[in-house]
Amino acid sequence: MKYICFGYLDLQTWEKKSPSEQNAMIDQCFAYDDVLRQTGHWVGGEGLQGATTLSYQDGKVTVTDGPYAETKELLGGLLILEARDLNHAIQLISNHPGIKMGRWEIRPAQDLQPMIEASERRRAIADPR
Amino acid sequence: MPSAKDIPETIDALYRTESRRVLATLIRLLGDFDLAEEALHEAFRAALEQWPAGGLPANPRAWLVSTGRFKAVDVIRRRAKFEFPLDTLPETQIPAAADEEGEAEQPIRDDRLRLIFTCCHPALAPEARSALTLREVCGLTTEAIARAFLAAPAAIAQRIVRAKAKIRDAHIPYEVPSPAELPDRLDTVLQVLYLLHNEGYSASSGESLTRPDLSGEAIRLGRLLKELLPAPEVLGLLALMLLQESRRAARTSCDGDLILLADQDRGRWNHALIVEGSALVTQALRTRRAGPYTLQAAIAAAHAQAPSTAATDWRRIVGCYDLLARIAPSPVISLNRAVAVAMRDGPSAGLALVDQLLQAGHLANYHLAHAARADLCRRLGMVEEARAAYATALALARQEPERRFLERRLNELG
Prior knowledge:
The complex is a heterodimer. Chain A is of the alpha+beta class. Chain A has 4 helices and 6 strands; from the N terminus they run βααββββαβα. Chain A has one domain (about 1-125): Dimeric alpha+beta barrel (Alpha-Beta Plaits, 2-Layer Sandwich), CATH 3.30.70.1060. In chain A, the strands form 2 sheets. In chain A, strands 2-5-1-6 form a 4-stranded antiparallel β-sheet. In chain A, a hairpin with a 2-residue loop joins strand 3 and strand 4. The two termini of chain A are about 35 Å apart. The relative contact order of chain B is 0.06. Mean pLDDT of chain B is about 85; it is low at about 85-110. At the A-B interface, helix 2 and helix 3 of A face helix 2, helix 3, helix 6 and helix 7 of B.
């Protein structure tokens, strides 16, 4: 199963660290990512920059800057894991060095297949070819 | 000896039949659940890499155990490099291979039984025992356990994490309890076996209606327990599992669809299992200390011995449910009792009871409660109400064959 894991960075903890400590932490995180790749658990991952929000109002799409990162923590990255189950995902993330720098949120990817099939049936009825 | 191209399939089959046994042994050898789990999977990965070229080892299970033990060293090294926040490093070093010599002296040779008693240790929270056993002993995923418990996966995951931490921190021993402790420790084990059997008999989700491996496993462990401690409820539970098992072949059509008890071809029931199960029921009832499992087994035996639905002793079945509701009250028991009452006294009597239960709110998310309501409404000619109840049941059901059954019934209403 796939799990999407959001890694947050606690800015207070982070800023207390010296540049060399910060580098060591970054190196550990990337080294652990390599372990996840070697053991077949890494599906993908990205670091995250500032957000842009799109919303729909009065028939129009509005684009706004933000939401801005909080001053305490920011969503630093996301990682897609292949794990046997939720406890396995917890085990893998609990070993991620990034856990020392902020919380992680683990979300099982939802299998949308039944929903997609139900939708296809509805659309076939609404618009028969 | 399978050819190289069949080896991945052989490994797949081995994973299904042997991985829990290998895990149980690795936990004993390594003294750490998570380490053993990683080691187990590394061993299977190694098998996938090495066996296609090198061939199947003479004793695959022993190969997996020793490879797992070897791989654990790598896992520990890797962990040491990353300074583990969860404090998962085992305190003991990995024991030398000579450790297996003492095995013959152990009263119980089955590591899985040892694992069950550890997972069902009274120091663990009751709701954690079943979850942990289902995951570690039976290899269910956290998500499947959550469905069996009608709970959120995150809540189950937390129980499992806490239970493992407790086993580690409280130094819960990895052993079968002494004869003096056994009776007390047994109740939780029986509960777990029952859940395990249910998961196998009526898999909580997915394409297939049943998972014979799991039921077979529960029965195997039940037989082993009976050898160890033939208490009335051990006999009762084993009887219940055997009697349910006896109907397996008749329970699904060749298309994998669900066939209700009333419509089953009774000639396809496994009569050897019925005879064995019925004898155990009699034996357990004779002790006059019949508990919930024995009563449920007595109900299953009444069904198993009946030539048809009409000729079933519904009076005896309702009587058993009355006793059950008294000693082990639960909304699901009340639901089953309502269905039996409907057979004895007619559908409207049953419907009144089901509605009472649904109004009390306990079973609002239980698809079978709505399916039962739908069926009773259908029999009473209340088509609109039946339709609504089938639709609710369908929205809640997770298992494909069950969903197809409900859809079929819904369509038959016209």
